[in-house]
């Protein structure tokens, strides 16, 4: 994309005296590679979903305590802070699959590095590396969502047993 005009033409339009030389605006690096742009978007979106899933997991544990900001305040904690909070709250809550949760948390500590691969020349131009980063972030997200959903279902089953025992 290129745009040419003379400064004198632009100045005449604004009624100012002008110097007579031309200017050219040229895009320095046009991106004809739509696939790369889509892969970068996939990595960013996968990280955003992972962050949101971990945030909701932390909020689920904190609901009874009222000690954690609502989803509208997301982004106020770094991802590693959220992971640390999740580990603390999961342990304090006696999370039944704490070993799997702790393993997922340790694996997720590299998620920001996976996301930041989009800023690396070596990785951001490598379609396979971007696909791999997005897939790993999606896998981590699915792991946290699965653990959270399983916990919620377990809590509902316990509550149903308590209610049926009271009848």
Fold and architecture overview:
This protein is mainly alpha-helical and 167 residues long. The chain folds into two domains: 1-30, no CATH class; 32-166, no CATH class. 66% of the residues lie in helices and 6% in strands. It has helices at residues 7-14, 34-62, 79-92, 98-108, 111-115, 121-124, 127-166; strands spanning 2-6, 22-26. A two-stranded antiparallel sheet has the order 1-2. Helix 3 (79-92) packs antiparallel against helix 4 and helix 4 (98-108) packs antiparallel against helix 7. The termini are far apart.
Percent helix among the residues? Answer: 55-70%
Instruction: Please identify the structural class as seen in this structure.
Output: mainly alpha
Biggest beta sheet summary: 2 strands, antiparallel
Distance between the termini: 75 Å
How much is the average pLDDT? 80
Lateral strand order in the biggest sheet: 1-2
Give the tally of β-strands: 2
| H and E string | EHEHHHHHH
Quick one: overall form?
elongated
Strand percentage lies at 5-15%
Uncertain residue segments: none
Our count of helices gives 7
Number of domains: 2
Rounded Rg: 25 Å
Can you give me a brief rundown of this structure?
The chain has 167 residues and is mainly alpha-helical. It contains 7 helices and 2 strands, in the order βαβαααααα.
